[in-house]
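HUMAN: Can I see a protein plus its fold?

ASSISTANT:
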Amino acid sequence: MEQIYPRHQNKCKLVKVKPESVQLLLQYSKALNIVKHKELTFESNLN
């Protein structure tokens, strides 16, 4: 059981994100339109 866990668990660190990156992702998600019809999925950008 001991061998399935990594030994170096404390090497993880959080990454700081710039506010511009967050705004870009939010604007993209607002402009993305997904339409599902039966088994098909259509994605379109509203810009």
